[in-house]
Write a structure and sequence with these properties.
The chain contains 14 helices and 15 strands. By secondary structure, it is of the alpha/beta class. It is globular. Bound molecules: magnesium ion (MG) and zinc ion (ZN).
Length: about 375
C-alpha cells in the first residue's frame, strides 16, 4: 500500500514538475549527471580597470538564463579557481519577481530587463495589459546605435525575443520571428530557422531578410569571417544544441557581433544570452550546468577583451532568475569536481547577481529590482 502510494505521489510529482518546465525539456537525469568529475580548464586573463570615458558609448549585456550564485561557483570550481567574470569588480543583486508571480519565468524576467516594466509570466515585450513597451534595443536603434542579439536557444525564444518582439505569449514563435522584420536590428545569431522558413502563413522570412539587405549564414566558420554589414545567422532549425553539437558557437558569434557592431561611430547595444544554463538547472544536471557556465564565461571573456581595449564599453552580466535551487554539496577546486543537489525542477524566487565592468559599472552596486538594471543602462547610454 505504502509502495503504491509512493509511486502515485511520484507520478503526480513528475507531472507537476514537467508542467512547470518548458515543454522542450527532458525528464530528470541520472544520478551520475549530478556530479561533474572535472574536465578541460582554460586560462583566465586579467583586464585593465582603467577606462577612457565616464559614460559608456557601447553596452554589451550578457544574460545567463537561470544563473544563480551556485551556477557561477560551479563554474569557478570546474575551472579550478577562477572565471573571466571575476574581472567585474562592481557587483549587486537583482530581485526578479514578475508582475503576477513571486517566481518569474524567462519571458517576464527578460521583459523587465529589456523594457524596465514588470509584466505577467509568459509575456514578451508587453505590459500587463498586453500593450507593447519599447525595449532598450529598440531605443538604441532610434538613437542611431547599432544593435544585436546572440543566443544559444532559438533567437525567437523568450529572452532574446523580449528585446525585439511584442507578443502576449512566449510560444507565439512565428509571430515573434515576424517582429524581427519590423526593426532595423543589425545582427542576430542563434537557432530557430524553422520559425523563419517553415511557417503557417507560408512566408519565408529568410528571403525577406535578404531582400532587406541582410547577409544570411548558417555555418559557424562563415559567420566568424563576417566583419561588417547586416547579418542574420540561424545555425539550427531549433535551438543550437548542447556544447558537443554547437562547439564554440556562442563565443565566436559574440565576437562576430562585436566586430560588426563596433564599426558604428555612434556606438552599439548587444545582448548575448547563455540560454542553456537554465536548461541544465531544469534537468538537475550539474554536468550540463558546468558546460554551459564555462561556455558563457568564455563568452564574457570575449566581451571583456573588447571592452578593455575599447575603453568606452560597459559590460553588464546578470540573470533573469535562478533555476533548480542548485545547492553545491561537495567538490574540489584542485580537481575541478562539483557535486550538487536540486530541490526543484523549476525556477526559484531568490535574488540573482549582477556584475559590471567599464564606464558606469559602479551604478550596479547594491540590491535592486530587475527593472532598475534597465533604467541604469538606459540612463548611461542615452543620458535621460
Ligand atoms: Mg532564455
Ligand atoms: Zn527556465
Amino acid at each position: 500500500m505504502i509502495q503504491k502510494l509512493t509511486i502515485l505521489i511520484l507520478i503526480i510529482g513528475a507531472g507537476f514538475t514537467s508542467f512547470a518546465q518548458d515543454t522542450y525539456l527532458d525528464a530528470k537525469v541520472e544520478e551520475t549527471e549530478k556530479t561533474y568529475l572535472g574536465g578541460e580548464t582554460y586560462k583566465v586573463k586579467t583586464f585593465t580597470q582603467k577606462f577612457k570615458s565616464e559614460k559608456p558609448k557601447n553596452i554589451i549585456f550578457l544574460i545567463g538564463d537561470g544563473m544563480g550564485v551556485s551556477h557561477i561557483f560551479s563554474g569557478i570550481t570546474a575551472n579550478k579557481g577562477s572565471l573571466f567574470l571575476e574581472n567585474c569588480k562592481y557587483i549587486g543583486f537583482s530581485k526578479t519577481q514578475s508582475a503576477d508571480n513571486y517566481i518569474t519565468d524567462s519571458a517576464a524576467g527578460a521583459t523587465a530587463l529589456s523594457t524596465g516594466v514588470r509584466t505577467n509570466n509568459g509575456a514578451i515585450g508587453v505590459d500587463v495589459n498586453n500593450k507593447p513597451v519599447k525595449s532598450i534595443l529598440e531605443e538604441a536603434e532610434e538613437n542611431g546605435l547599432a544593435t544585436g542579439l546572440v543566443s544559444t536557444s532559438t533567437i525567437t525564444h523568450a529572452t532574446p525575443a523580449s528585446f525585439i518582439a511584442h507578443q502576449p505569449q512566449r510560444n507565439m514563435y512565428e509571430e515573434i520571428a515576424a517582429d524581427f522584420l519590423k526593426t532595423d536590428i543589425d545582427v542576430f545569431i542563434g537557432g530557430g530557422k524553422a520559425h523563419f522558413t517553415q511557417r503557417k502563413d507560408g512566408r519565408n522570412l529568410v528571403e525577406e531578410l535578404k531582400e532587406k539587405g541582410y547577409r544570411y549564414e548558417e555555418d559557424l566558420d562563415k559567420i566568424s569571417k563576417v566583419k561588417k554589414g547586416k547579418l542574420v545567422a540561424l545555425t539550427a532549425d531549433g535551438d543550437a544544441g548542447r556544447m558537443e553539437q554547437r562547439g564554440d558557437m556562442l563565443p565566436v558569434s559574440t565576437k562576430t557581433a562585436i566586430n560588426i557592431l563596433s564599426k558604428n561611430d555612434k556606438g552599439f547595444f548587444l545582448m548575448v544570452e547563455g540560454s542553456q544554463i537554465d536548461w541544465g538547472g531544469h534537468a538537475g544536471s550539474t554536468i550540463y550546468i558546468v558546460e554551459e557556465m564555462l561556455d558563457f564565461d568564455q563568452t564574457i571573456g570575449k566581451a571583456l577583451a573588447f571592452a578593455a581595449k575599447d575603453g568606452k564599453t560597459l559590460v553588464v552580466v546578470t540573470a533573469d532568475h535562478e533555476t533548480g535551487g542548485m545547492a553545491i554539496t561537495g567538490g574540489s577546486i584542485e580537481e575541478g569536481i562539483v557535486q550538487a543537489r536540486y530541490p526543484t525542477g523549476g525556477h526559484t524566487s531568490v535574488m540573482v547577481p549582477i556584475f559590471a565592468y567599464g564606464p558606469g559599472a559602479k551604478e550596479f552596486i547594491g540590491i535592486m529590482k530587475n527593472t532598475d538594471i534597465h533604467a541604469k543602462m538606459r540612463k548611461l547610454l542615452f543620458g535621460n
